[in-house]
Amino acid sequence: MIKPDSFDNAPTQSLLSVINGILDESINKKDAEIPQNVACLLRKVVQEIERRIATQGEHLRTQSNHFKAREKKYQSRIKVLEALAKETSEESEYEISKMEEKEGSRQQEEEKMSEQKQIEKRSLEQQEIEV
Question: In 3-state terms, what secondary structure has residue 34?
Answer without folding.
Answer: coil
